Amino acid sequence: MQRWSRTSQAQIPATNFADKRELNLFNQPMQNQRRGQIQWSQPQIYPLGDSGIVLQFSRVYNAEVQQRIRACCTYLDQLQVTGLLEYVPAYTTLTLYYNPWLVSEEGRLDPYARMTEIVQAMLAQVHTPQPEMAPTLVEIPVCYGGKWGPDIEEVARYAGLSEAEVVRLHAEAEYVVAMVGFAPGFPYLAGLNKQLATPRKHQPRTLVPAGSVGIAGQQTGVYSIPTPGGWQLIGRTPRRLFRPRQENPSLLRAGYQVRFVPITAAEFEQQNRHES
Amino acid sequence: MSLSIISPGLLTTIQDLGRIGYQKEGIIVSGAMDALALRVANLLVGNPENEAGLEVTLLGPKIRFDEDQLIALTGANLAPTINGQAVKMNRPVFVCQGSVLQFAPQGSGCRTYMAIAGGLSVPTVLRSRSTYLQAGIGGRQGRALKTGDVIACPGPSAVAKQFWQKMLAATPHKTWLQAAWTPSPELYQGPQANPSIRAVPGPEYSLFSTDCQQNFWAQEYTVTLASNRMGYRLRGDGTALALMQPEEMLSSAVSFGTVQVPAEGNPIVLLADHQTTGGYPRIAQVVTADFSLLAQVPPGGKIRFREVSLAKAQRLYCQQELNIRQLRQALRLKMRL
User: Fold this and answer.
1) Which residues belong to any copy of the Carboxyltransferase domain (chain B) (predicted)?
2) What CA–CA distances, in Å, run from A213 to A143, A241, B218?
């Protein structure tokens, strides 16, 4: 029935993640980058089954990768292609999901080849840092410690700091949403002060309340719905990160900047009532 | 118009073809596990393919129809009866007001789909009626159906009504009636016991040794009891699958059909309620054309994976769409006759 046939198989990447030089998966941001002067290199492109195509920009997460993925997402938000369903940005990859029947004009074209063309057209457009990309900054109020952050003592002890210093270091940093995943609206935030890096809990909790702010290794994040979880909980926010009745149900998106603002227990109660 | 749930069964949820477009916000797709079966069921009652229906799991519910209705059952044959008499799968069925549908505790396959002409009146949340259990949204108040639920239905289309009136004219004085015809098995086959599931190599396939790769395609896997709508945990012959060198991976997108291998070495196949991203090596990706077979394997059932090329997988996908189109055209004629 199909009029297309494939001469060469799509390549599965021969990536070797074992390169020891890059075991640290979180790189420092690239230095000496001046806008408009850098040509981004070609990402690796490979299939995820018959309905997905992946762009892998790098093997380590850094500011450049994050910026490129964001630029591609902005491009895709404007793009209208029949059969292109959705995209999922992650740390170093951008995955596009498609309906092979529709993108191939009902089997007349080779679906993967067609998707490769669409992706190449995108990369040709999005090849240098965009000057107009001012990141969205979201402030998240957090009541640290006490019953809202039962693990703050453990984090402080692990870091050899006081609880007040943990709060200061956590709240003074600027974070970037590396990706949203695990649960609806759950942000993986990059930018945690290395002094606060703490291993996950040995025994995960069976239920972590929504709004809990946690640390796991070099990452920090906010639980968006009640779920089991193993992150070290240091505080809680009254803000809702998952709002199913809104057209943009996740408060945060990949690429957003986040700052945590300490609040008192009384402020927490007041804002919590307001949010619900 | 409504349905009353007399007893809910093991896990009966409202599903359509899923919540598409929100994975970038961490919101899972959900939707029918056996999407093909739901599409066929909808077509059999004259609905659009994406209409919400009921997904019944292993132990079926007991449901009373509060008005005359046209329904269709597809997917697993969980020995359904209406008013105590066996009802056949994969065809339009007219049920008169007060009729009761129930299922026997034994059957083949895992999930039955029930479509109702005109669909179900449940609110659309983020462009879908699918139940997302973990987030508590969609379907009936974001949860599985329970005893006493009354689900409103907008009522059948004019075409559906006309169709059952013709059925009734041919055989009056019955509380329910089923069409004598069913789609050709070439267009829709339904579940198979211990199926062979076709898959293409996944992004991290080449990080597994040749021995591991061969072992993966050769082994027979059992779907363990620790399996649900998120995924099947598989158990093989005891040979663990391992990367040639242990890796720390950054999370990336995963989808329905992704076969991932955690450190302990037994693969997990992700299904309708999969998380949007995952950090385990992805050894393979099941072809979409075999999702229907995969979704019907009950706990304890066995599967094998069979390698196909990407080009083949996409040809199978297109073939399935052609089958659906053919079925849609055939049914349009049948229902207007």
Assistant:
1) 24-323
2) 9, 11, 45
Residue with tokens 């969205």: A136
Q: Where does the pLDDT of residue A150 fall: very low under 50, low under 70, confident under 90, or very high at 90 and above?
A: very high
- In angstroms, rounded to a whole number, what is the distance separating the alpha carbons of residues B316 and B306? 14
Q: Output the six-digit token pair for B35.
A: 């999407």
Position B170 scores a pLDDT of: 80
Kindly state whether A49 is in contact with chain B, defined as any CB-CB distance less than 8 angstroms: yes
Q: What are phi and psi of A212, to 5 degrees?
A: -65, 135
- Sequence spans of domains, chain B: 2-182, 196-319
Residue B106 class from Cβ within 10 Å (0-12 exposed, 13-18 middle, 19+ buried)? exposed
pTM of the model as a whole: 0.91
Confidence of residue A40 (pLDDT cuts 50, 70, 90): confident
Q: What is the CATH number of domain B196-319?
A: 2.40.100.10
Q: Report the gap between the CA of B316 and the closest CA in chain A (Å).
A: 9
- Written as six digits, the tokens of B178 are 């089923």
Q: What is residue B257's three-state secondary structure? A: coil
- In 10 A of CB A191, how many CB atoms? 17
Q: Do B26 and A185 touch (CB under 8 A)?
A: yes
CB pair distance less than 8 Å for B311 and A186: no
Any CB–CB contact under 8 A between A47 and chain B? Answer: yes
**Residues from chain B contacting residue A73 (CB–CB below 8 Å):** 24
Among A19, A44, A50, A74, the residue to mutate for chain B (most B Cβ within 10 A): A50
Q: What is the pLDDT of residue A50?
A: 98
Strands B302-307 and B268-270: unpaired
Nearest CA in chain B to A227: B134
Segment B321-333 shows an average pLDDT of: 95
pLDDT of residue A133: 64
The set of residues, in sequence order, having a beta carbon less than 8 Å from that of B225 and lying 6+ positions away, is B299, B300
